[in-house]
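Q: Hi! Curious about what Tat pathway signal sequence domain protein looks like structurally. Here's the sequence.
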Amino acid sequence: MPDSPEFPRRTALRTMAGAALAVPVLAGPLAGFASAASPLWHPDPVKDGLKAFEGVEADRGGLHPDRKYVVVEGDHYRFNIWRDDRDTTGGGDRQRTETKGMVQNGSALKMRDGETWALSYEMFIPASLHGTSRFTHIFQTKTPATNHGPWVTLDLVRDGGTEMISARAYANPGSPSIAAAKLAPLRDKWITVEWTLTPGDAGAAACVLRGGAGPGAPVVAQGRKTGVKLPDEGDYVRPKWGIYRSVESASADVLSTYLLFRNYRAERK
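A: Let's find out. The predicted structure is below.
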């Protein structure tokens, strides 16, 4: 798997031991999971493993059967990607290592039009995972039956010399940002992402980005947008996590790298 000098196991344990959960600073629709006593989905990587998801999408062409793309490391999931990986879509112009969906006790949880869902997770972005001039999604939402979307995404983007992390209404004209922050201060540590999503042809999406682990970590960006294209199209909206990116960005930004996730939570409001 890709080297990870930025995140040795002992550092991971120290980071996890030192993560503090404090009183949340927000209320209302951007409060995330501050009051969620019993979420519908809160997988344990050790107990649930990859059964926490509907499936894994990586090396779908079977080009690298020796590689491990999504693995459990202690209390978190590690998503690996190599610069020579290629997905079966796009004519060889993209690559992906993603998990899709949320499974609890063997059943998939489904977000449908008119429902409001809160999703939260912690994420570790290493220095080797760059913002790019073309698309790099590290979270996306799609409709399984039609394969339409992505609707709402979390992207790593580059504007000249500045790399940003941006929650976006990706399917709306111009893919407007919902909340964005500079990427550099958020690398090489656990950060928290909180979504509030209401699917629909004209749905709503809110996002909070926190600069540390847990609901009490300082907010670095937040926003909410209505009129968001997020339809279930008679099926359901399914979240996906991992790295899905174009290889047509600058080669210096498409490196072998990884992404870590832990403390997934989902609740229907």
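A: A fun detail: Residues 30-78+94-254+261-268 form a domain with the Jelly Rolls fold (CATH 2.60.120).
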